[in-house]
Amino acid sequence: MKSLILAAGDGGRLGNLTKNKPKPLIKLLGLSLIERVILTANQAGIKEFVIVVGYLGDKIKAKLGTGDRYGVEINYIENNDCQKENGIFVLKAKGLLNENFILLMSDHIFDVRILKELIDYDTKSSVVLAVDRRRPLPEDTKVLEKKERIADIGKNIGESNCIDTGIFLCSPRIFSHIEEAVKEGKTELAHGIAKAAKHRDAEIFDITQINSYIPSMRKEVKPFWINIDTKEDLIKARELLIENACKGRNDLLATYVNKPIENFIVSRLVNTQVTPNQVTILINIIAYTSTFSFFKGDLLFASVLTFVVSFMDGVDGKLSRVKLSFSNIGKMEHAFDFLFEHSWYIALAIYLSNTFGAIPMLLSTLILLFDGVSDYCGSAFGKAIKSRDLQDYGRIEQLFRKFDGRKNSYIVFILIGVLLNAPFWSLAAIAVWSLVSAIFYSARTIKHLHAMDKA
After folding, report:
1. Is-contact 145 161, C-beta < 8 A?
2. How many CA atoms lie within 13 A of 322 on its CB side?
3. CB proximity list for 220: less than 8 A, separation 6 or greater
4. 261 with 165, same domain?
5. Which domain holds residue 68?
6. Lowest mean pLDDT among 339-343, 386-390, 398-402, 424-428
7. Looking at the structure, do residues 104 and 147 belong to the same domain, yes or no?
């Protein structure tokens, strides 16, 4: 499926930000607005784009090129009069789009889930408009929906019950409706949609019906979209994108200490050329420096480094989500984490074995074994019940997740033991807590899977 993107406006409401730069090239967390639109659409499986350019369009073409760097194909249509309404912009693409296509605005930031669901929407109408049920703002285009069809649309209509998100699934018939409106001197896209609605040829897709829970993020995230018209909109979008990139249902250290530190680091890195994979490499270098320090007996320094790793551990994933920069190697992050975390306990055990004999090595082996069981329970649960993560499946799991056996709990045990000059007991406490966690997650997994079998 192709996408038509409207990028011909002058963005006058952004003031000096668009004096020498077209609005679609305004930066938001390291990416231009139109890059975010393209990359999000690409996540939904769209590979071909037709972009209508106007005001300073050459700069847009110079920035995006043919689309190779984004893994897509881009073709351009020139619009020489950027003062005209957006219905005229859409008509410029007539003849190039001969099958269903997605219509997007270059200044609308949106949740990829909206597009994924809209692409799969089964319709015979000329247009399906994604709508939101929130209370309209003065600048919103209002929509009156009756029985999932558009009855009326416009900024100044009297009665409405939803608003236009600027995301459309269209068939080529939409061009005839827009042309009908233009003949009457009505040149806004909304006028063309209103004509389609008059012929009972326009439907709505309600984004509030999309499941807001994201298993991989362990939290509820309402499907979002933002129309970037002002500097205040840019600030709001920045805050929303960073917040949505944060995983939910974390332990106490991750929630109250790591999260603000990670957000601060990410907000600085997004405007640099640093990639998520480079951050992952740096984290691993620091982590194994800690391992070597444990092995050599420099326990306080090693313990401090484990907290540095903890503070940075979520940065690579968060940076990836904010910059829409994903790679297959990034899927190995959990395996890398598991490896370096357990290298700490093994290295500490080797150092302590000089004093305590084989017992520390036995404890580190038990930690590895019990953590492996907990990890496998989560994997088995995820294969059977895909709707939620094991640690977030019920209220009991959500509560235990705040204190369960994993890195952020273990490094606290280590630091306390080092400060009290009792590192052996840190290792013993970790072993006990990893056992408790393994028993808990094994019991809960068996319970839930058994209930599923009975059902």
Report:
1. yes
2. 34
3. 212, 213, 214, 248
4. no
5. 2-225
6. 386-390
7. yes
Whole-angstrom distance, CA of residue 155 vs CA of residue 295: 68
Beta bridge partners of 49: 3, 74
Listed residues 225, 259, 283: the one ending a domain: 225
Tell me if 409 sits within 8 A of 251, measured CB to CB. Answer: yes
Q: Give pTM, 2 decimals.
A: 0.90
Distance CA(449)–CA(118), nearest Å, equals 33
Distance CA 118, CA 60 (A): 27
Is residue 106 pLDDT above 90, yes or no? yes
Give tens-digit pLDDT for 330-356. Answer: 778 888 999 999 999 999 999 999 999
Residue 10 lies in a domain: yes
Specify the DSSP element, H or E, that contains 306: helix 299-312
CA–CA separation, 191 and 87 (whole Å): 8
- 75-80-85-86 Cα dihedral, nearest 10 degrees: 0
Task: Let me know if residue 407 belongs to a domain.
Answer: yes
Half-sphere exposure of 378 (CA within 13 A, CB side): 17
User: Is the model's pLDDT at 86 over the cut of 90?
Assistant: no
CATH of the domain at 291: 1.20.120.1760
- For residue 152, pLDDT over 90 is answered with yes
The 10s digit of each residue's pLDDT in 236-250 is: 999 999 999 998 878
CATH of the domain at 200: 3.90.550.10
Rounded to 10 degrees, the C-alpha dihedral 116/120/121/126 comes to: 100
Residue 238 falls inside a structural domain? no
For residues 346 and 368, give the distance between their C-alpha atoms in angstroms, rounded to a whole number: 9
pLDDT digits (tens, 9 = 90+) for 188-232: 999 999 999 999 999 999 999 999 998 888 889 999 999 998 889
Residue 81 has what pLDDT?
66
Is 274 exposed, middle or buried (CB count within 10 Å of its CB: 0-12, 13-18, 19+)?
A: middle
Amino acid in position 230: T
- Where are the strands (E) in 149-217, listed by range? 149-154, 162-170, 202-206, 213-214
C-alpha–C-alpha distance, residues 346 and 367, integer Å? 9
Do residues 157 and 117 make contact, with C-beta atoms less than 8 angstroms apart?
A: no
* 141 and 190 Cβ atoms separated by less than 8 Å: yes
Give me 147's structure tokens.
């029985």
**Residue 48: inside a domain, yes or no?**
yes
Are residues 425 and 417 in contact, defined by beta-carbon separation less than 8 angstroms?
A: yes
